[in-house]
Amino acid sequence: MLVTPLVSIFVGVALAALIAPPIGTAANYVGTLIVEATKLQPFWMGMVVSALVGIALTLPISSAAICHSFGLVGLAGGAAVAGCCANMVGFAVMSFRENRWGGLVSQGLGTSMLQMGNIVRNPKIWLPAIVTSMITGPIATCVFKLEMNGDAINAGMGTCGLCGPIGIWTGWVNPTETAIAKGAAAISPGWFDYLGLVLVCFVLPAIICWALGILCRKIGWIKDGDLTLT
Question: For labelling alongside 30, which of 39, 56, 158, 215 has CA 20 to 30 A away?
Answer without folding.
Answer: 158
